[in-house]
Write a structure and sequence with these properties.
The radius of gyration is 16 Å and the shape is globular. It has a seven-stranded mixed sheet with strand order 3-2-1-4-5-7-6, sandwiched between helices. The protein contains four helices and seven strands, in the order E-H-E-H-E-E-H-E-H-E-E.
């Protein structure tokens, strides 16, 4: 937030965010003086009705909007601009057969160097997530994995490669 006050964040499946991950992220991006350290926060869900409770939860925050987005479908065909977001938060994600297509669609929304944060409540295999992320173009795979015993969830961070910071051979520039 401090490094990039123009941070653009997209939250997927916000209507099913029973852990209030979105609210926690927003709280961390607003200082004690109520100055926000983000440009835009967009909460999405496949259903407008499911977004109602999320809107109530975050009503105290500025520049938070909600929009219907079915991430299993191409986001550009739903009015979302490709390569726009710095960070995507996806809470209550489950590793399953449709996950790869959804991740490929989410990837389209991140700009190069953008971050994907997954909150998996099913405690799926770290290796399965790493392989899935790599297959869908997140070259870093599971860059950081944190298991929360009390919440019975796993938080996974992945970063979309930035082609500017790699050489023609594909190796990172040091």
């Amino acid at each position: 937030g401090h490094v990039n006050p123009d941070l653009r964040i997209l939250q997927l499946s916000a209507g099913s965010d029973d852990r209030n991950a979105g609210q926690a992220v927003l709280k961390s991006l607003v200082g004690h003086n109520d100055i926000k350290r983000y440009r835009e926060y967009v909460a999405t869900d496949a259903s407008a009705e499911r977004l109602d409770s999320f809107r109530e939860t975050v009503s105290a925050f500025r520049d938070v909007r909600s929009s219907v987005l079915d991430i299993s479908q191409d986001p550009s065909e739903q009015g979302f601009q490709i390569g726009t977001y710095d960070m995507i938060l996806w809470s209550n994600v489950e590793h399953g057969p449709a996950t790869e297509q959804a991740l490929a669609n989410a990837k389209k929304l991140l700009h190069p160097g953008g971050h994907l944060i997954l909150v998996d409540r099913m405690n799926s295999s770290e290796l399965a997530w790493d392989q899935c992320l790599r297959r869908t173009g997140f070259d870093s795979g599971s860059k950081l994995v944190c298991r929360e015993a009390d919440l019975r969830s796993t938080i996974i961070l992945s970063t979309l490669s930035d082609p500017v910071s790699t050489t023609k051979s594909g190796n990172p520039v040091v």
